[in-house]
Specification:
Radius of gyration of chain A: 17 Å
Oligomer: heterodimer
CATH superfamily of chain A: P-loop containing nucleotide triphosphate hydrolases
Largest interface: A-B, 33 and 26 residues
Number of strands of chain A: 10
Strand order of the largest sheet of chain A: 6-7-8-3-9-10
Strand content of chain B: 15-25%
Structural class of chain A: alpha/beta
Shape of chain A: globular
Number of helices of chain B: 21
Helix content of chain A: 25-40%
Number of helices of chain A: 6
Bound molecules: adenosine-5'-triphosphate, magnesium ion
Number of strands of chain B: 22
Distance between the termini of chain B: 32 Å
């Protein structure tokens, strides 16, 4: 177990406590998480690192209430969402979390703007969809369908969709995984921008270690356990990243 | 503002429009079917009940030679009888201008005062005859229309050998003649058969029936034992030449109407259920595929925070749109078709039809039923969509599992081509879908057979009955027996090439406790114009002694050739005679028996007479002959075979054509929907594989063969099964349709009908396959391979 980190006195908005996740595959149990303790502090940008299969997506899904842990607690401001029912989980996601997925997951039959509107229609104080798209620099592609957009553009739409509801927490699972370097940087810049300007607490999964330099804090997973949890001394802006 | 999820719904539907539309059509056909059949069933059933009730249709009917009025009181005393109404009913010839042979009338007496207590008359226009004015009649409205008769017109009629001019005072209908068919006729003929009503006093005078009756009808008390009443009535009427009492089930008009209603009832649930089952199955196929394809979207929509119920509702709405579309089409079409069907019925069944524009509860039931079917159809897919865990959004679905199909393991097929193998594996992967698709095709084919087979039996029946058994051109019935010498007179009439004379007599055939009333025909030894056949279509010779009976009668009496049966005569001394059954014959109509004319005379203890003559006629001189025949006072009726045949063909032909067309269209909807939807879903599932093959160098034709091969297998499996289903269905319908004691339709489905049904189904399949193939040809290789599934 790593030492508690210096920022621990800051308030955690979302935190995993002793979280385990076991997938039952026929006779074999797959232990995806084996007792993970990870807090997510207000306003920070956290990067989650780790080799393939180490449990990053599983952890992020559990933190985002997409999935429930096999054991342990997930606290959102002292409220245990791990114990909540399906309905509460949906409410929690609707009200507090924005997701960005590795494969964009846009609805192909909806335009860029409509994909964003999908979210703004069900939230309390959303950005205007055009505003959100402007944030990711896609004003002119607003009425295009996903199939008419490049991978990077689709991912930026996905980010616009995630931030349009002004979530407290933004969770991104390998947002640059399917993108080339330049496009990846452009996407990371948008995430960084949202984190800075809107103060959205953000967690980003990547297996590209260099990306970690843009984070406030870097957590590494390995084989279902936290291998390290450290703060970044000097944050680098995404534009200066190299890999 | 339309919300975004609804916009997705609309666009998804537009993308699936071909499939949505074909399924909606199947729903529409199911709804239309139900509405049509149910409305017709209700309209006919309700009208029948109301008409019979209001016009006091009798429960029991009996004819006799002649009995004094006092006998009616004895019938009234029979246990279970609530009231009796003795009448006079007479057959007359109506030598109408413009008809080659005279039309036949049946005059029924009306009471001196008031309306008939039973079998009342519905006067459509004009008035009741006034008693005392001897020649006033009410006449059957359809006959009047055919001959342009109105109140005030006159009708020539031969009453008891004398030509009279009857004055039509009103046009009428009666519950007794909802389906008007003359005694012994095969088809209703408005032009040639006219029930008429005349005051009792006028009839009594014309037919010398004062203080007597020759027909009696009764109403029974509720819960009365009809069988017992029939036996008691027969016993009372026996000395007065009673011809056997019968109930509504044997009253011609009533039994034909009942048969039709029973047939509709049999189909009212079955047919629509087939269509809705097919629709449900197709919705299942299409929605399962759609939900699989949209797993990622469903997950992301949930991840964003939409509730499970919203997602479920989303897909439910989509189905609703399809069902609503189908229902609207179906209700509209059904309302129209129900109307058309009732119009068709109105041409056969003359009763005041209670028909609204659209039977609303029926329509609502149909729509509800299709919703239920649709929701059951997508139930599984819907459940999957609702319960899909959102974490799935990040995980691609695991590859489909395939297994080697057992066909591949068959020894001869070792070296089967890989592309053929793909077809078998795909079928084997979803055996249930293959089975259900084939079942859909099979039902479609079966329905086409049902719509067409009726025609098949007609040709052979008519050929046998009118080509080989009844070889005359004209048959003449006499009011009373005439001596054999009369034949010589007929033979010398102009245009007569050949004459045969017969003696027929009503009898009761008995064997132990089993009996039937029918007629016994005496044929001359050299009978040319009437021939008899065995079931194997071998000509049957009339034995020197003994009797030939139809095989249905033999079954009823449980009599074998060689057995002795009893014959109760209803003429002469009305005695009971023993006769030996010398063989059985096959005939489409009735339960009659045949013997040598000479033997029949011995049986009746009379000298040689005839009461029917069959004539072969020189067509050029037919008109001349007709005129001469009509002048003979003892002639009761004249039938022209050709007219009968034409009428029969015309009547059954037109109806058959309409039914065939409609059912064929309906079945086509199923076949198209099944093949098209399966192929589309298959294309969607396998577009990657197929695109890969194209990239590997397969031609379009080869790739199409893989995709459509699967459909072809389903169609070819469905065809023979459909033929079997159709054959069963046809048999079941036949059994409902006709009372085998009156009319036996041979179970006959021609190879043309089988071929026609197969061709329609194949054509529908090929058409749908071509539509899908066009998509396959324009398959965007790069696009397909690029997309992640
Ligand atoms: N639904 C599931 N059923 C079974 N096993 C699962 C399931 N989801 C994840 N796993 C397993 O749990 C482990 C952790 O998976 P997870 O997706 O969290 O890894 P990851 O760190 O995100 O990997 P990657 O970088 O490849 O995305 C893996 O071994 C994976 O096979
Ligand atoms: Mg992952």
């Amino acid at each position: 177990m790593p030492e508690p980190n210096p920022q621990s006195e800051r308030s955690a908005i979302l935190a995993a406590h002793d979280v385990t996740k076991v997938y039952r595959m026929g006779d074999v149990d797959v232990h995806a998480l084996r007792g993970v303790n990870v807090p997510l502090y207000e306003g920070e940008l956290m990067v989650l690192l780790g080799p393939s299969g180490s449990g990053k997506s599983t952890l992020l899904n559990i933190l985002g209430a997409l999935d429930v842990p096999s054991s342990g607690r997930v606290l959102y401001r002292d409220e245990d969402i791990a114990a909540a029912g399906e309905r509460e989980l949906t409410e929690f996601r609707r009200d507090h979390v924005g997701f960005v997925f590795q494969f964009y997951n846009l609805v192909p039959s909806l335009t860029a703007r409509e994909n964003v509107a999908l979210v703004t229609e069900i939230t309390e104080r959303p950005l205007d969809p055009s505003e959100a798209l402007e944030l990711v620099g896609l004003t002119d592609r607003m009425h295009h369908f996903p199939a008419q957009l490049s991978g990077g553009e689709q991912q930026r739409v996905a980010i616009a969709r995630a931030v349009a509801k002004q979530p407290e927490i933004l969770l991104c699972d390998e947002p640059t995984g399917a993108l080339d370097f330049k496009t990846g940087i452009r996407v990371l810049e948008v995430i960084d921008e949202v984190n800075r300007s809107l103060g959205t607490t953000t967690a980003v999964i990547t297996h590209h270690a260099p990306i970690a330099s843009m984070a406030d804090r870097v957590v590494s997973l390995s084989d279902g356990m936290v291998a390290s949890d450290r703060s970044n001394e000097k944050k680098v802006s995404p534009a200066d990243l190299t890999w | 503002m339309v919300n975004v999820l609804d916009r997705k719904l609309f666009r998804d539907l537009m993308r699936l429009k071909g499939q949505a539309l074909t399924i909606a059509l199947v729903v529409a056909v199911g709804v239309a079917n139900y509405i049509t059949l149910r409305s017709a069933w209700r309209a006919l059933g309700d009208s029948r009940a109301a008409y019979y009730e209001q016009y006091r249709f009798a429960d029991v009917f009996a004819r006799l030679k002649r009995a004094p009025d006092s006998v009616a009181d004895r019938v009234q005393d029979v246990r279970g009888v609530s009231s009796v109404y003795p009448r006079v009913v007479e057959e007359v010839l109506l030598p109408m201008v413009g008809l080659l042979t005279p039309a036949h009338g049946q005059i029924i007496s009306l009471p001196a005062q008031g309306r008939p207590p039973m079998n009342d008359v519905l006067v459509k226009s004009g008035r009741f005859p006034e008693s005392g004015r001897g020649n006033e009649v009410l006449i059957y409205e359809p006959f009047a229309k055919e001959h342009d008769l109105r109140p005030g017109s006159t009708v020539p009629a031969v009453l008891n050998g004398k030509l009279h001019e009857l004055i039509v005072v009103g046009l009428a209908l009666s519950p007794e003649y909802v389906f008007a068919i003359e005694p012994g006729g095969m088809a209703s003929d408005d032009e040639r058969f006219a029930p008429m009503w005349m005051s009792k006093s006028a009839m009594a005078a014309a037919f010398r029936m004062e203080g007597a009756f020759n027909d009696i009808v009764l109403r029974l008390e509720p819960g009365a034992d009809e069988k017992a009443v029939l036996i008691a009535v027969d016993r009372i009427l026996e000395p007065y030449g009673g011809l056997g009492a019968y109930g509504r089930d044997l009253q011609v008009s009533s039994s034909i109407l009942d048969g039709e209603i029973a047939q509709i009832e049999a189909m009212v649930l079955f047919l629509p259920a087939v269509f809705l089952a097919v629709a449900a199955f197709l919705l299942n196929v299409v929605f399962s595929r759609m939900v699989t394809l949209q797993r990622g979207q469903i997950a992301v929509i949930k991840a964003i925070g939409y509730r499970n119920s919203t997602v479920g509702l989303h897909y439910l709405k989509m189905v609703c749109i399809i069902v609503v579309l189908g229902s609207v089409l179906g209700v509209g079409f059904g309302a129209w078709l129900a109307d058309a069907m009732l119009d068709l019925y109105a041409g056969f069944f003359r009763l005041p039809m209670a028909r609204g524009r659209l039977d609303l509860p029926v329509a609502i039931n149909a729509v509800i039923a299709s919703f239920v079917a649709a929701v059951l159809g997508i139930g599984f897919a819907l459940h999957n969509a609702v319960t899909l865990p959102p974490a799935e959004a990040m995980r691609p679905p695991s590859p489909t599992r395939y297994r080697a199909s057992p066909i591949e393991r068959m020894p001869g097929l070792r070296r089967i081509r890989q592309s053929t193998m793909m077809v078998f594996r795909e079928i084997w992967r979803r055996p249930l879908r293959t089975v259900l698709s084939s079942a859909g095709i099979a039902f479609a084919l079966g329905i086409i057979i049902l719509g067409r087979f009726g025609k098949d039996a007609h040709g052979p029946i008519l050929d046998l009955q009118f080509g080989r058994q009844q070889r005359e051109d004209i048959s003449v019935n006499f009011t009373d027996e005439v001596e054999d010498r009369g034949l010589g007179y007929l033979a010398h009439l102009p245009g007569v090439d050949q004459v045969d004379g017969y003696r027929t007599t009503p009898v009761r055939f008995r064997s132990g406790p089993r009996w039937r009333d029918s007629i016994l025909v005496g044929l001359p030894p050299d009978s040319h114009l009437r021939r008899l056949f065995t079931r194997e279509f071998q000509p049957a010779r009339i034995p020197h002694s003994g009797i030939l009976i139809t095989d249905v009668l033999a079954d009823i009496l449980e009599a074998q050739p060689g057995d002795i049966i009893e014959v109760d005569l209803k003429e002469g001394d009305r005695g009971t005679r023993q006769v030996r059954v010398s063989g059985t014959i096959d005939e489409a109509f009735g339960l009659q028996g045949y013997m040598q004319k000479r033997s029949l005379h011995e049986l009746l203890r009379e000298k040689p007479t005839i009461n029917t003559a069959l004539l072969r006629v020189d067509p050029g001189r037919e008109a001349e002959l007709q005129a001469r025949l009509a002048d003979i006072p003892t002639v009761q009726s004249i039938h022209r075979k050709r007219t009968l045949l034409e009428k029969f063909e015309e009547q059954t032909g037109r109806t058959m054509q309409v039914i065939t067309l409609i059912l064929t269209l309906f079945a086509t909807a199923i076949a198209v929907a099944v093949v098209y939807n399966n192929a589309r879903v298959s294309l969607s599932v396998r577009s990657r594989d197929l695109a890969t093959l194209r990239v590997l160098g397969f031609t379009r034709a080869e790739v199409s063969a893989i995709l459509l091969g699967e459909q072809a297998v389903q169609v070819f499996l469905g065809i023979p099964v459909g033929m079997v289903l159709g054959t069963w269905g046809a048999r079941a319908l036949l059994e409902l349709q006709a009372d085998p004691e009156q009319f036996r339709m041979p179970m006959l489905i021609s190879s043309q009908t089988y071929a026609f049904s197969a061709v329609v189904v194949l054509a529908a399949a090929v058409l749908s396959a071509l539509l899908v193939r066009r998509r396959l040809d324009t398959l965007d290789l790069v696009g397909v391979l690029k997309t992640r599934e």
